[in-house]
Amino acid sequence: MFENNQKVDYFCGMNLKNILASIFVMAAISACNNAQKNDKSITEESDECKQEDKLTATLVDGYYGSAFKEENTLTLENALKNYNEKGEANAQINGEIESVCQSKGCWFDLKGANGTQTIDFGHKFLMHKDLAGKKVIANGSFYSDTTSIKQQIHEAVDDAKSMTLEEAKKKFVSPAITIGFEATGIKILN
Predict the structure, then answer these.
(1) pLDDT confidence of 34, banded at 50, 70, 90?
(2) Does position 11 have pLDDT exceeding 50, yes or no?
(3) Residue by residue, what is the 3-state secondary structure of 70-104?
(4) Rounded mean pLDDT of 53-70?
(5) Are 188 and 70 in contact (CB under 8 A)?
(6) For the chain, which residues make up each domain, given as ranges?
(7) What is residue 15's predicted lDDT score, i.e. its pLDDT?
(8) CATH classification of 63-188, choosing from 3.40.605.10, 1.10.1020.10, 3.90.230.10, 2.40.50.200?
(9) C-alpha to C-alpha distance for 94 and 111, rounded to whole angstroms
């Protein structure tokens, strides 16, 4: 079919240079589409933060966020066990607040026997910043998440006992896969 010295420069009727150029163009288009998606994600996050800026920490009848009926409240450890072993995402967790976001009051760390769990509010409500040590019930659901470097730094710097911005930037160099808990309501018990 081809002689030994004859080069094969065509594949399915296309010149190899054209094939490589086509692959390059498709890769560039894909990169642009991904960049646009990332820009949209940044815009959505920015919009959520703008919405959060309009919120105020409001305690109504002992609740932040939506009021709820107490049923089957669990310790942090038991709720996590149900999520990890049974896939039960919805939970009411009781415990003590270890620390609250000192920037806006947009999350808190709930103390458990084996560590803490960050509880966020999905940019829907805020809580007062001086609630460390209070007993609470958090009503909401668990989710698996990747925490960005930026968010890890934000949380570390906001926690006054933790670290400086420079220390946080050195420590957090890659995203962290975590289990989160988004609360729809928080009941203050004491």
Answers:
(1) very low
(2) no
(3) CCCCECHHHHHHHHHHHCCCEEEEEEEEEEECCCC
(4) 86
(5) no
(6) 10-53, 63-188
(7) 53
(8) 2.40.50.200
(9) 9
